[in-house]
């Protein structure tokens, strides 16, 4: 209480307060509810100065995070608004656009229509054209005969993979959301791929059954683009299934944004893979850094 007494006497001392005294006055007012007239006047004088001091910080945050604000607007706010206005899901709206703007039986036309819609109309987290070209190249180099896709979503990456596979290859695509899977099925058939297998179930339920229920003996290529928290447990499940052989390739999208840190930490320490991250920007966005991990299984040493 000695401090309180000193601060209040004499009143004429108020104009010459130091920065330390300012902090004490503000602390006293907020914690002890002291509403001395001089304190009220002082608060009125200080508040605008504090507000002005925060303006440069606020502007810096806005400038640095502007791409994330744009992404939030396109991916969340626009989606909510259009869901309410149209009564359709975002994936259904994308399908309608592709259906009216693409050529049936032409995978390139379907992917181009998707890219236009996702970049100009609404945001969907497909792999997109830039990282998609990396995926195309890896598929061409590997020429895999058995491919597993985790996260078909609305069929964009499924079509992208299917068009790059050699004759006789088999593609098994998993999608846990039944509504999205229905859209993916339509997109895949629209592109002219009738032999691919679309499985509607969570990955942790399907992976243990790939050998017994689907007759798989080996996986040459795995593409991960589902929930990022599932990357690591699903990879470990694939290791335990015995379907990965030396030379099997796993490609995982969005390992930097939204990110899969546990997955990256595991592959770095496990010693089971030769790996690298292809750095890029987030699909259909500017200024947001992302990356796609490429893993080649070396087997248990």
What would your notes on this structure say?
- The termini are far apart.
- Helix content is 55%, strand content 15%.
- The protein has 14 helices and seven strands.
- The radius of gyration is 28 Å and the shape is globular.
- The protein has helices at 2-8, 19-32, 37-64, 66-86, 90-101, 107-121, 128-142, 156-162, 178-190, 203-206, 210-214, 231-241, 255-259, 261-270, and strands spanning 146-150, 170-174, 197-199, 219-224, 244-252, 273-281, 289-297.
- Strand 4 (219-224), helix 12 (231-241) and strand 5 form a beta-alpha-beta unit.
- Mean pLDDT is 86; it is low at 1-37.
- By secondary structure, the protein is an alpha/beta fold.
- It catalyses: a catechol + S-adenosyl-L-methionine = a guaiacol + S-adenosyl-L-homocysteine + H(+).
- One of its GO terms (molecular function) is catechol O-methyltransferase activity.
